[in-house]
Amino acid sequence: MKKFITYVLMFLSPIVISAVLMEVLLRKIPNDYQYKCNYLDKNSNNINVLVLGSSHAYYGIDPQLMSHKSFNAAYVAQSLFYDWQIIKKYDKNWQNLKFIILPVDYFSLYGKLENGIESWRVKDYNIYYGISSHNYTDNSEVLNNKLLLDMVRIKSAYLNHEHAVLCSRLGWGTDYLSRKKKDLLKTGKLAAKRHFVIKEGYFNENVKVLRSIIEYANKNNVKVLLYTSPAYKTYVQNLNPEQLNSTINMLYTISKKYDNVFYINLLNNGSFKAGDFYDADHLDDLGAKKLTYKIDSLLLTIEKSKSKNFPPLITNKTLVSRIIKNKF
């Protein structure tokens, strides 16, 4: 038995050593999660506008173009739970925060990162943000990716010296360029199908998280701008009406209830043309510029209104509609 155990250990030792070495190498590769966490560690107390949300905000809002000191902490497939965790992580550091910008889209209230096709990203929040996960495999890079992919990442970083940080200095995703755009018809159908959720089990849970964000902001005199992201018609036309309407109705309900909440629906906004989209539900660099200016103009208009106790209908619907009609 001792010989057998010895042989097994001898056989496993190179595998274990290789796995540990690979884990160390992978963690040393700079990435967007690590970059954003480090930035917030150092600068969260200076931020006036915090952008959260999924890839629609990550690629859609460029803080460099905004009037206030802003940072984009959104990321691909980032669900409301992780938006809330990021806010709580820097609870004592938001002294200068004035606005939280958060997209709530067709899929936002119906899914969770942990149960989606990109659930492997949970480990990035665990490892690089320090947002704990209950799954032990989320403590490891190696246990969450295919071996071939890990080897490609190591080769790219250490041999080819390719950059793995794809966001700008202020967190905006820079790789959805207009010259690289995808087929809008094909991506519209595929994305709408991927974002349709048959089960509604997460809806109430996500609404609760959204309310937690809003109530935290209200307690700290922070205004929240919720918006539904612009999308191309090939995506919009393939959305399930029931899922879409329940989301939009909930957002209007919430915006009426809280004086610090503003909501704007840009899903069908006519100012966004085919040339503004990288694919059917993501803006390219040109579209991001347009959206950023719209959002920034809206924030400035809200900020100029001195009263903090507007009637909800004026604050959240009539005012926003007037801004859209007159300026956008």
Write the layout of secondary structure elements.
Layout: H1 2-27, H2 32-43, E1 49-51, H3 55-58, E2 70-72, H4 80-89, E3 99-103, H5 122-129, H6 147-159, H7 184-195, H8 203-219, E4 223-228, H9 233-236, H10 241-257, E5 261-265, E6 277-279, E7 282-283, H11 285-304, H12 312-327
What does this structure look like?
The protein has a single domain (31-118, 168-327), classed as 3-Layer(aba) Sandwich (Rossmann fold), CATH 3.40.50.1110. A five-stranded parallel β-sheet has the order 2-1-3-4-5. The protein has 328 residues and is of the alpha/beta class. It has helices spanning 2-27, 32-43, 55-58, 80-89, 122-129, 147-159, 184-195, 203-219, 233-236, 241-257, 285-304, 312-327, and strands at 49-51, 70-72, 99-103, 223-228, 261-265, 277-279, 282-283. The longest helix is centred in the first third of the chain and has 26 residues, at 2-27.
Query: What helical percentage do the residues reach?
Result: 40-55%
**SSE sequence, one letter per element:** HHEHEHEHHHHEHHEEEHH
| Broad structural category | alpha/beta
Span between N and C termini?
A: 77 Å
Based on Cα principal axes, name the global outline. globular
In CATH, what is the class? Alpha Beta
State the total count of DSSP E strands.
7
Low-confidence stretches are: 307-328
Mind telling me the C-alpha Rg?
A: 21 Å
The largest sheet is: 5 strands, parallel
How many separate domains make up the residues?
Answer: 1
Which sequence of strands runs across the widest sheet?
Answer: 2-1-3-4-5
Mean pLDDT, to the nearest integer, reads 88
Q: Per CATH, which architecture?
A: 3-Layer(aba) Sandwich
CATH topology: Rossmann fold
